[in-house]
Amino acid sequence: MRELASKRMRELASKRVSVQESARVSEQESMSVSEYKRLCLVKHESNYRYDVVGTNSNGSKDYGIFQMNSNYFCGRPSGTSSSTCWRVNTYGCADSCTSFTNSDISNDANCAVRVKNCGGFGKWYGWRNHCSNVQGSEYDYSTC
């Protein structure tokens, strides 16, 4: 019954996560409130949409609000839930890629935090191209 209710809620939910929800979930997953740059990343990777699937020139796909890449961070048979960097960098997260395209972004944020903690945001093109020099004030939604 819970699964049916959850499915119905996802059907009713908007495909876009609010900025406040993104900040709240990221904060719960151990990202400091002072790390406003993560909101810049989400803005430029998915425009705050959790249902986005992007195809790259090498055939890999990026999934969800953080655009987690199928070659590195999801859908891998030996994916890990560990925070140990060599495991995250070698095996990716223990999530199916499609699990990053539903309205529950907590697993997305958990994986993104572990990837970020093991090498920074530089693994994302949205970060490199738009966010690495952002001071953060335009992404400070702490008063919302």
From TrEMBL:
<dbReference type="GO" id="GO:0042742">
    <property type="term" value="P:defense response to bacterium"/>
</dbReference>
<dbReference type="InterPro" id="IPR023346">
    <property type="entry name" value="Lysozyme-like_dom_sf"/>
</dbReference>
<dbReference type="GO" id="GO:0031640">
    <property type="term" value="P:killing of cells of another organism"/>
</dbReference>
<keyword id="KW-0081">Bacteriolytic enzyme</keyword>
<keyword id="KW-0326">Glycosidase</keyword>
<protein>
    <recommendedName>
        <fullName>lysozyme</fullName>
        <ecNumber>3.2.1.17</ecNumber>
    </recommendedName>
</protein>
<dbReference type="InterPro" id="IPR019799">
    <property type="entry name" value="Glyco_hydro_22_CS"/>
</dbReference>
<feature type="domain" description="Glycosyl hydrolases family 22 (GH22)">
    <location>
        <begin position="93"/>
        <end position="111"/>
    </location>
</feature>
<keyword id="KW-0929">Antimicrobial</keyword>
<dbReference type="Pfam" id="PF00062">
    <property type="entry name" value="Lys"/>
</dbReference>
<keyword id="KW-0378">Hydrolase</keyword>
<keyword id="KW-1015">Disulfide bond</keyword>
<dbReference type="GO" id="GO:0003796">
    <property type="term" value="F:lysozyme activity"/>
</dbReference>
<dbReference type="InterPro" id="IPR001916">
    <property type="entry name" value="Glyco_hydro_22"/>
</dbReference>
<comment type="similarity">
    <text>Belongs to the glycosyl hydrolase 22 family.</text>
</comment>
